[in-house]
Structures are given as structure tokens and as C-alpha cells.
Design brief:
The complex is a heterodimer.
Chain A (H helix, E strand, L loop, with lengths): L12 H13 L24 H12 L10 E5 L14 E4 L5 H11 L4 E7 H7 L1 H10 L3 E7 L34 H7 L4 E6 L3 H13 L4 E6 L11 H4 L1 H7 E4 L6 E2 L5 E5 L5 E5 L19 H7 L9 E8 L5 H15 L4 H6 L3 E4 L2
Parallel strand pairs in A: 1-2, 1-3, 3-4, 4-6, 5-6, 7-11
Antiparallel strand pairs in A: 5-11, 8-9, 9-10
Chain B lengths: L6 E6 L8 E6 L1 E9 L4 H15 L2 E7 L14 E9 L12 E4 L2 H7 L8 E5 L5 H6 L16 E5 L1 H8 L7 H5 L2 H12 L5 H10 L4 H20 L5 E5 L7 E7 H16 L3 E5 L6 H8 L6 E5 L3 H13 L3 E6 L1 H17 L3 E7 L16 H6 L9 E2 L6 H16 L2 E7 H5 L1 E5 L19 E2 L5 E2 L25 E3 L14 H16 L10 E2 L7 E6 L3 H13 L5 E5 L1 E3 L5 H5 L4 E6 L4 H10 L3 E5 L8 H16 L4
Parallel strand pairs in B: 2-9, 3-6, 6-7, 7-8, 11-12, 11-13, 13-14, 14-16, 15-16, 22-23, 22-25, 25-26
Antiparallel strand pairs in B: 1-2, 3-5, 4-5, 10-17, 15-24, 18-19, 21-23
Classes of the chains: A alpha/beta, B alpha/beta.
Keywords (chain B): Oxidoreductase
Protein name (chain B): 2-oxoglutarate ferredoxin oxidoreductase subunit alpha
Pfam family, one (chain B): POR
Chain lengths: 363, 643
Amino acid sequence: MTTIDLGMPADGPIADAIARSLETQGEKRTDLKAKDLKTDQEVRWCPGCGDYVILNAVQSFLPSLGIAREDMVIVSGIGCSSRFPYYMNTYGMHSIHGRAPAIATGLAASRPDLSVWVVTGDGDALSIGGNHLIHTLRRNVNLKILLFNNRIYGLTKGQYSPTSEVGKVTKSTPMGSLDHPFNPVSLALGADATFVGRAMDSDRKGLTEVLRQAAEHKGTALVEIYQNCNIFNDGAFDLLKDPTTGVQWSIPLVHGEPLVFGPDGASCVVRDEFGGLRIAETNQVDAGDIVVHDATRQDPSYAFALSRLSSQDLRYTPMGVFRSVEKPTYDRMMADQVEEARTSSPADLGALLSGSDTWTVSA
Amino acid sequence: MTTTDPSVVASTAGSTTPFVKSVVELDRVVIRLAGDSGDGMQLTGNRFTSETASFGNDLSTLPNFPAEIRAPTGTLPGVSSFQLHFADHDIMTPGDAPDVLVAMNPAALKANLSDLPGGGLLIVDADEFTPRNLAKVGYATNPLEDGSLDGWQLVSVPLTTLTLEALADSGLGKKEAERSKNMFTLGLLSWMYHRPTEGTVRFLERQFRRKPQIAAANIAAFRAGYNYGDTTEAFAVSYEIKPAPMAPGRYRNISGNQALALGIVAAGQRSGLPVFLGAYPITPASDILHELSRHKSFGVRTFQAEDEIAGIASAIGASFGGALGVTTTSGPGISLKSEALGLAVMTELPLVVVDVQRGGPSTGLPTKTEQSDLLQAMFGRNGEAPVPVIAPRSPADCFDAAIEAARIALTYRTPVMLLSDGYLANGAEPWQIPDVEELPDLSVEFATEPNGTAADGTPEFLPYLRDPETLARPWAIPGTSGMQHRIGGLEKADKTGNISYDPANHDLMTRLRQAKVDGIAASIPPTDVEDPDGDARVAVIGWGSTYGPIGAACRRIRRSGRSVAQIHLRHLNPFPADLGEVLRRYDRVICPEMNLGQLSMLLRAKYLVDVESHTQVRGLPFRAAELAAVVQDVIDSTTGGTQ
């Protein structure tokens, strides 16, 4: 079992309230089971939606972190995936479209003692909320972002999304979409995200492993989860889910392991002559030329090059953790500044109100 | 130059001067300093204000500067000015028109001369009236020489040359030395008005402590200006304005933005909650962000967000976690925050939203004042989304207004809109420093125990079970055991807070949210009417920064033998419970506003009282004399002459 140390709660009325609740409710429970995280709310996704699989995986996985449910907060935006908080017996906020990372930033920056999660989708995070996403990533606030990417707008009934492939025929693009999609992993790395991973909804083991590493990461973690929308974009990820083609076109990322993939390890990743990466046939290159995956490289260029291997039709899609580097977190640094200020000049409201230039009028 | 006749009260003969200098006593003076944006007029004005405050005059200031950081030198758009009104009695406005205009260049003269009444004192920097500078602003001939300024008392002083001479041994180059001419000017004015000078010397030492050469040069220029006044024959008269009688106590000079920021710090301290400010820089609100950023030792966290939306969103997140969430902006920022403000209404979380209003619409007049966001504050959201609205009336009052906004937000678990404006933000006045122990107690009680029972008999937490008196919902914060709950923007079921699309529930919740805000009226004082004569038939009602001009206008009217009542609203939503009844007592009600009649529209709609709107949107405060004339006409047509 992993145990995430969240540190001490804030002082003052917040700490008092927490202490009072522990007196009446008993000690914090960290020995949770998946069922402890379920709520009495009926789950209202379409039958067969990939979101169910992700919800189950998260509920099964979270107890392993050793965090009490009252110390977890899930913030979401708008979209199918954003219903997630209602189904989790933690604190939660189902907010407004695109703003979840900003709301979570305010919460995490003022309460470093909480485990804050954002659940968002490709429309929520990359369209209306694109600005908040990149700034949250660059700041490295301690929060985890689960980006459910189904490459379609589901809740508004099937328009193309910023991750839809060019030429996507939808209700709003009867002649095919014109705009080039975002690659969410490339975008996050461009914002210098300290942790970026990718997983498949149906791959419980792979998803749990990426989530575990994200949870253990100190700072902002972005996990792109490929999620099937069986109503408006069914089979979007079949190429990678199918046992045969999946092996052929997925590149599993394992830290410290050579990037070899495909049936019988027939394919591999090597450096190209421009400092990027390219796919090669394993038997055509020297074993020493095969790139050994290193998620801890400070320079994001390598992880970015990895993210560019895949095409919009999902061939050569790396799955796993692209990047995981340590950097000071925003919330910690903010708390340190407050502490430093308190130490160097203790709070004295009377002195503050008086300022340095006063005069006295006598009776 | 004043409302009373100047009288020579003393004559002094300085030992170094061969001629007699006289001292004239005045009861009040309005000085306007005008120069290029780069001339340091705001700094000079602020220093003169500090000297005046510490001398004990009552005062009011009006900074007026362009939105451009440095418009081309010497041009009309680049003119920046600072007006200061100070007196030996209680005053309410920065003055309708200056008695003294200091023009540092031809552009400053051209832009401001029309405001200086005939006979007013006009001091100019003669060195700047070069053919090139004159041509820049379209003067065909030099006004200092062509007789066009004969109607004013022109004193033409080579300020630049004198400054350079004073700094000849400073070791500074010409360009650098020239920069001190504002301090030379300040020294001259300090002599003219008998201002104490130690504060400015201390200020300069502090300001340039890492550049002792610059500090020394500025102090030398300041002293040279003072001594120049003392010895030159150009100024035969200096003026004395006695300290104003003020309530006993300790005072400081304070601007609206400063007072507002300190009010927020105080609200944090009095509630015991950490303050979290999420803000995006915007004129004229940025100084609140700057000020709060300096007070981390009070547990104040400031977050410069990526945009206005993230500013309010982060504050909502912090409020969910138990902080006093605050976001500060101006009108365009409120437009961007509207949707998130609706979320705060729906989730019923405490939040203080500060709108330092400026001229609009769109980018409008970033550095000028206006009151045109009232209806936006009231209604600028989708759905029925009531938000309490309050407004400060003067720069120092921003402190109390901020505490009141926090009180309402914390007590009623609601976002509160605090409407300041550009004039209050940058204007300054003396402030009697409050006793910390006498500030309101804002302590809150977080919910820590279940407040209901589930169907199966187990205790459960109902996040939307309301306090019967305030209708506020419980505030349970993450980390509190057993109180896990989910909130959001979708309609809430009564009590449980679960998602509900039930028609009757939506109707109930919409009315409950409105009733909660309406109920705040029970916690605010009744309408304060100022009618010293007690027989007024005409009332003037206002809100926000018009308090000063309306009050000054009412005083003029009363001095003319007429009666008038002044009502000034702090709470704009909800109004004081007795407001309708109060308004109906008067034959006529006039509502002056720096918009096109927003408060009068609300009053007419709510009370069916024929409120007459008088409006102006010039980006500047009302002039008291003009307001007095308008109100006087109404009084005379109502009463048939003086009462």
C-alpha cells in the first residue's frame, strides 16, 4: 500500500473544525475499500460508456493511497466525465465549463493538506478551459488531472472536439471538420508539465499503474485516458484495444526499459538525425541504438518527441508515463512564503492599520 | 482664491531677503499639479498630500492620469494631473476647480487652463515653453508672452534651470538632474503653503536608499525649491491654512484601494480565516492586489491568475476549502467573471467580489471613474442569481465597506459585490485609525457534525439544510470527517443538495436563494437621512463616490437658506427595509449618478417613487456647484423659493 503524506492541516478555524469532527466521528479512516467510495447517487452515464470502467478503476485504486476520503476532493467541469464527483464519496465540486483546474488551484494552493483531483474531458480541458489547463501545468500546483479523451462532444450530442481527427463528420461538420486536433500529451509537455501519462479506459492494469504514479507525483499530473463514447464515437480506440492491432500500434512506456513493441518486439524507437525519434524495425538496428525510456529527463524534448510518434489515426501511440520530474510545487512555495513572512514580521493588525505616517488630534 | 476674504495676518522679513513677504490666511485651497506623464506629478501630489495630512488639514484628492504609461512627451494625451483640496474645516470633495494651477509644460497648460477660474494663480515652468514644445500642442505664439494669460496671475519660473543650478555639484548628468524638477516644485509649494518638510526628506531617503546620490539630489532640489520661494521676489505672499478641527484620535492619510485592501486583511483577522485573493491585473483595481501581496504575514495568499475567470474560480475553490475567498477587478473583469459568480450563488459559498468601476462599455476609460456597473452587479448573470451589493462612499470608507462585504459573505454564505470606483480607488483622505478590538467579530462556525437523519436512520450531512434565521446553508470544509458532500452548478435538491430537475424544487430553491439575499436587510441599519433642518421637501439620494459632491452641494444649498435631505446608500441589494417609506416622505427625490440613471431605475421599479435622475458620465466626479444648482432649481420649483 502506498501512503501519501499530505502534511498537517492549516491552523485556525480550519484545523479546529477538523479536530472537532475527529472527536465526534472517530479517527481518520485510511483502510478504505472500493465500496466506501461509492455514493447513493445513481450513476447516469449511457450504458456501455467507458466512464463506468474508469470510475470502477479509480474507486478500486484510490484506497491503496492510504488517504482518508474526507481529505480527497474531486473537482470537475462540464461534460459527461464531469459527473464523476457525484459518484465518489469524497468532497467534490461539479463546477462550470473549463474552470475546474482554476478552482482546484485555489483549493490546493490554500489547503496543501488535501488530495485534490480534477476530472475533465477533451472539450472541457482543451477547448473552453485550455487556458486554465496550460497555466495549471506550468505552475505545478499539487493536483491530479484526469482528462477523459473520447474525441467527441458527448453531452451536447455529438459535435467534433479539439481532439477529433481532421475530416470528422458530425452534426456540426457535415462535410468533415477542418481543424487540426490537439495531442493532449504534446500540449501538456509544451506547458512543461512535470508529470504526463496516458492510459486506456479498458486497460485496468495499465490505467491503475499510471494513476498510482500520478498520485505519488508531487505537483500537477496530467493523465490522458482514452475513453470510448459508445453513442457518438463508438470504436474510436479500437485500433489500440484490439488484441492484434493493439500490440502492433501501441508503444508501452516502461521507465528503464528499451522501447521495443509490436508482435514479437518487431518494432522499436530510435533517434533520428534531427534529434527527434523515429520508428524502426528491431532487426535492422543495433540493440544499442534502441532508446531506453527515461521518464525523469529534465528536458521535456524527449517526452515531447515520444508524443509526436503517434499519428491522428492512433498508429504508434505510446501508452504509460511520458514524463515524471521533480520540481517545487506552487502550493508548497506559497505556504513557504507565508511562513517566511510570518517569521520575519509577525502579524500585528493595529500596526498595519496605522502605517508609518500618523498624526494625533487631541481633544 | 477662497470663499473668505484673504486678510493679511502677518508680515515677515527674512534676514536674507531685502523685501517684505506677507502671509495670508486662507480657509481652503485647491491646487492642481499638471505635467507630462513622466514628470512625476502623481508622486509630487502624493507627497504634498502627505505633508498636508500630517499638518492636520482636512483634504481630498483627485489624481487624473492617462491610460498610456508614457504617451509621447509633451503631447496633450500625455498630460497627467493631481488635484488636492485642503482646508481648515471638514471638506467633502477634491474641489470643483483649482485656485492654483502648476503647469510643467505647454501641454499641461493647454489641457488644464480652461478649468482655472479667471484671476487664479498660474505657475509655469518657463524653460519648457520652447518653440518645439509649443508647436507640439498647437500654440502658434508663446502664451507666456503674447498676453493671452493676462486674465490670470501668471508666475513664470525657470524651474528646470533652477533645478539644474541647484544640482550643479551633485555629479548627476543633465538628464538625470532634470528629473528632480518635480521635487524643486514641491519645495516651492511647500514654502508657499507652510507645509512641514521633514516627512518628504524622510520619504526620499527611504525611497532611494539604494541610490544615495539620487536621494541627495532630490532632497537638494526639494530644499532649493523651498529656499527659492523664501528668497525670490517672484513670490511675495505665502499662505497659511490652519489645521482642521477633527475628532480626537490618531489619523493617517489613505487611498481607497489601500483602505479596501486593509479592510480585507482586517476581515481575515477578525474571522480567523486565511484570506485567498485570486486576481488578474486590471486598472484601476491592481493596487489592491499589490497591497494584499505585501501582507502574507497575516496569512493572506495572493494568486495572480491567468485570467479574470481563473481569478474568481480560484477564490471559489479556496472558499470551498474554508478560506475567505476574494477576487478584485474592474467592470470588464466582472463581465468575464459572471458565470463563475453564478456558480458561487448556486453553491452558496462566501466570496467577496470587488469591482473598482471605470468608464465603460468595453475597455472604455480605464483610468477614469464611473458608476455604471450597478445594474451589471445586480443582474449581470444568467438565471435568477441575486447577489448582495454594497458600495463605499469615500476613500477611507472602503475599509469599513470591505469588512461589511465580508460580514455578509460569511454570515449568509453568498458572493457579495463591493462596488468601488476609480475616484475612490486613487483618491485619498485622512482616516481615523480604528481600534482593532472594536472592529466587528466575523468569526464563523464550520459544520462538523451531521445535521440530518437518512432514511435508514443513520446520521447524515445535509449541505443545503438552512439556518432558519439567515437561510444560510452550513459550511463544511474538506478534511472534516463524515461531512463529505458534493456541490456544483446544477440545481440542488432542497436540504440534500443532490441534483434535482424537479419543477417544484427549482421553484422553491429559486425563491429561497432570493429570500436569503432579501433577508440580509434585517441585519443592516435603517436608512440614514441627513436633514439638519428637519423640514426638507426635496431629498437627494446617491450611492458610492458621489457622497462627497452631493454632500458638498447640500451644504451649499443649506447655506443659501434652503432645506434639503441627503440619503446615501451603502447597501444597494438589499436596500434598507424602510427605504421606500422614507422616499415617499418627500415631494421630490433627485438621484445624481455617474451613469445614465441605474439607481433611479431600481428605486422607481421597486418603490414606484418618481425618482428624478440627474446624470453625468465625463469620467470625473460631479462638481458640487453644478449639483447644487440642479438641486436648488428643483427645491425652488417645489417650494416656490427659499423656505
